[in-house]
Design a protein that fits this description.
268 residues; alpha+beta; five-stranded antiparallel β-sheet; two-stranded parallel sheet; 6 helices; 7 strands; extended
């Protein structure tokens, strides 16, 4: 009986060890696949930067969000470039613009007015609360550990912390926002179709596209790369760069990060 129990015990131990080994092997395989996918996405960003320096405007990649797919030995990557002038700048947007995009993203009229005022209160430097806005006391009453920045947004992700902003609204809005254009107006030629419709209440004609110039502006430019490795692992990287005209460095990286996992992993 003792021998039989010993055999059973050894069998259980061996099975548990084998199971743990399978799990560790699977995790390692997934980590390797994710690393390959991220490397592909980063390679896509660098390829887009190279394309920005193409002198022939006819052969240069477009800056209006056109997706450029690349097939590589280790997987595939889709790359888009957007001129920041075609995105809504959180630090310069007017209330009417903010309300328009919030309502287009699904917010009710009252909620969009409240959020627009809260965004304006977040970025202004005073403690005066707008009619529907939010200053430090409102954040404390809501049980939050932070208040309004009272300064410019430093990143689009910071919009998550504005009182009243929901995860669903942020995910819808984030691809169409910037903090780098420094412009209150939007160049509709470079605006994504969704943003164009939200601001103009019209659909963009499929044939409309910006006219390429031989001399590329300094930017900034938003670049996003979505990559899938051969084993099916996926990753994406977003970068914002500015072209330097009279400098030893040809360009400056303003931002480089992976978007949230819930963000869409395909262009659009």
């Amino acid at each position: 009986v003792v021998v039989l129990w010993m055999v059973v015990l050894l069998t259980v131990i061996a099975s548990s060890h084998a199971r743990n080994m399978r799990i560790e092997t699977s995790l390692a395989f997934n980590h390797v696949g994710t690393a390959k996918a991220r490397a592909l996405a980063e390679a896509g960003i660098n390829r887009a930067i190279m394309e920005l320096f193409v002198s022939d405007a006819a052969n240069r990649w477009q800056l209006n969000g056109t997706a450029y797919p690349l097939q590589l030995d280790s997987g595939s990557v889709n790359i888009v470039i957007r001129d920041a002038s075609g995105l809504l700048d959180l630090n310069k947007a007017e209330p009417v613009q903010l309300m328009a995009v919030l309502e287009a993203a699904g917010a009710e009229e009252a909620d969009s007015q409240q959020l627009a005022d809260a965004i304006l209160d977040w970025r202004d430097t005073d403690q005066l609360r707008r009619l529907h806005g939010a200053e430090d006391n409102d954040y404390r009453h809501a049980g939050l550990d932070w208040g309004a920045r009272d300064g410019n947004f430093v990143s689009v992700d910071e919009l998550r912390y504005v009182l009243g902003m929901t995860h669903e609204l942020f995910e819808q809005l984030a691809p169409y926002l910037t903090v780098y254009s420094s412009k209150g107006t939007i160049d509709l030629e470079y605006a994504p179709p969704w943003l164009y419709s939200a601001l103009t209440k019209m659909e963009r004609e499929p044939t409309e596209s910006p006219i390429a110039n031989d001399t590329l502006a300094a930017g900034p430019f938003h670049i996003t790369a979505w990559a899938t490795s051969n084993n099916g692992s996926r990753a994406s990287v977003e970068a914002v760069i500015r072209i330097a005209r009279n400098s030893e460095k040809p360009y400056t990286i303003l931002s480089w990060h992976e978007p949230g996992r819930s963000r869409k992993m395909t262009p659009g």
